[in-house]
Amino acid sequence: MHPDASTFERILTRALGAGDYADAFYEYRVVRSFRLQDGRVREGGITISRGVGIRVISGERAGYAYSDDLSEAALLETARVASLIAKGGAARVDAVELPSRAEAVASAYGDAAPHRLVAAPETYVDLLARADVAARAFDPRIASVNASVSEEMQDVAIATSDGRFVTDRRPLVTLGVQCVANGRERGTGFTGDGGRTSIDFFAERTPEAIAREAGRIACVNSEAIETPAGEMEVVVGSGSGGVLLHEAVGHGLEGDFNRQGTSLYSGRVGERVANELVTIFDDGDLPGERGTVGIDDEGTPGEHKVLVERGILRGYMQDRHNAGLMGSRSTGSGRRQSFRVMPQPRMCNTYMPDGASTYDEIVGSVKRGIFATSFAGGQVEISKGDFVFMLAEGYLIEDGKLTAPLRGASLIGNGPDAMNRVTMVGNDGRLAGGSYTCGKGGQYVPVGVGMPTVKLSSVTVGGSAVGG
Amino acid sequence: MAGELDLAREVVAFALEAGATQAEATYAIADRFSTEARGREVSKLEQSVARGVTLRVFDRGAKATLATSDLSRDGLRAFVRETVAAARLLEPDAAGGLPDAGTFAIEAPELPIYAADVRERAAEAKVDDALALERIVRETDERISNSSGSRVADSTTTIALANSFGFGGTYRASQAVASSTPIARDGETKRQGAYGAAARSYATLESIDGIARTAARRAVASIGARKPATMRCPVVFDRDVASLVLSDLFAAASAANVAAGNSFLAERAGERIGSDLVTIVDDGRLPHGLGTAPFDAEGVATRRTVVFERGTFRSFLYDTYYARRLGAASTGNAAGGGIGPTNFYLEPGEATPADLIAATPRGIFVTDTIGFGTESVTGTYSRGARGFAIESGELGSPVDEFTIAGNLLEMLASLDRVANDLVFDQSIVSPTIRIAEMTVSGR
Q: Which residue among A11, A163, A298, B389 is least enclosed by CB atoms within 10 Å?
């Protein structure tokens, strides 16, 4: 159970000292997971993260300390250490006051009842066994199957020196299957899915369907040819193609980089940063999605944000600290991996709404290029804006048709440059589902992505085959 | 450290009481400090003690694990019981279980991996170092217009491991890190550079001045960079990016990936794969090494393992479980529930990095890579990169926004130059290397 209001009041009063603002983040997260290898579930685990993190802000400065010991004495000492950043200023005399009871946030988490008990362990083992059978039955080329399932429940309580006291209860389920297929060469395929909901999610989105998808990708990749190198037209597939938005644009619009002026998008709100076909949203309020937050890790409700509208930069994703320094407001984007780290401005579910073209029109318009069905991941350098994506599944496009599958391709480009080269946007947009996790400054948080089919007029494809 | 070991033993006892056939608990306590300076100000100050218990229990060889920061006795007991109950549900595993008696680090030597100065150095002095690093970076070159901050951080960690065979071991280790991320202005473009150093002690950490100058040099180096032409040519990897190539090789040498059918090195032990220059070692006892420890995460004594010897692939890296599965012996590489490197490195050569450039008539010198696109199952390698064109044996104009691609098997075979600049500033390290031919994809 989290500390009560009066304990938080004493901790925050101690923490605030000469600072401008202080907050305390309590977390009790339990993750249960099971893993299958070689057709058997022989490994399971429980991970518990319990503690309180205390932050003190003084201008641009932030002090932080945490404790896994929840005794009041330990928390007061943690508050004192966090307050060291603000020393030198005048100590405040006012005591922090909080409502006597925490406000509980309305559930943003699909069907997961707020007090649901965790599933029986047999449920997880059964899900994995079903995935294994389905993957092996999919194709004789499937040589090995690895699968894992996890279910977590994170209880948080957040108290702030400006009088906010709020709790949230966040479920998260994930099931992932990785297959290796022996075709012309060995190929791998991975598919994961889940969301902020209960394990019942996998009654609809079955482990068999996820496993067959992983098996299909592994078989495709086992027959793949070397990817050509050089600049060419690229079509990015709907759904998980949204990783493109996350890397090429999203990170550059996070508040900390823009407050510090280190992002290439700094100071450019209202300017054209993409072709007018491009609109990008980030939404923390989509029920049950992996990147959804009822409240963020600073107690601000998740919301729908317009990042780019018809090519014009509309705004950044903000946490409280950076928003305060920039004279704007938090967009519910302050997220953190655990009580051991300070929150940062982060994405939630990032996606592009539908355009006017059909899939057939888009692919049919390409004489010779690449179709990127899905990405295994990506990375961006936010100052210049260069990004890289690794294809999980991709094909050559020849005369408007998908032909040979491609092995080991990367795409490299520059954020605004790539967004100016978006020449067609499909009408087939969807969220990818999936099990995407975003890393920033050593902190990992679950996110969602989505996109319709999109054509880029020219991207550098990093294959190994030259010429032809 | 006796108190820490007592808690680990207590957790093992809880697990045996709850019905586990075997149990092993590790109690880790890390004193952590970190500060960041930006511009003329201290921007961050963080200080905490992180405590955590990890437990592995076995039931008929099946394994269940617990990792928790809830160290209340009630919390521990409840979750230990749940962990033991979970193990009962799992299928038996003949390879599972604690390491064999006789493999534990019973008489581990005192290794030089702990320095008192990490904890003793005053917070004010560490803050001053971060401020100085930030100031020197900005003063070094007037084109540096901004930064994402300069950081000084450290940790002192105590590890206590106990298991139901009665083994109990403890050690203490320390680490100090300093890094900076300056940004240079190049017209409308911002160019970021980054450099950092790590050591077991502040006394042996690279100087603040040296770190600042390298970070600044990297930020301004790419001013005016353009996309190179698409071509096949030799590629020289700066030591920091060569270390990332070694990370991919480590993944392929991990027995866990071999067992999962996920390594291009599977079934190649004894095969000649690399050139004569490829000698790769994992050494868990390297003095002052950042991956050095007396025992691994299972209490098994660490050792030196030759992974590649003059091009011939000699050994995978094992923990106990995968060693049993693949009919080998543990190499003392158990880490965090899987297999990890200790000090994994490519043996250096005699030439200087400048000699490697001078020996390259036309090619690319890569100083940075982004992305992580290596398929461990085939060795297919592809990365975004930046660096310099090499023309007539000299560094030419800066290049960026291109990819380098190849296959790790071919890259090892065509590794034809190794420099002498190996520094053990991470767990996986390499000197500067040259690969005779790769695909550069740009314009």
A: A163
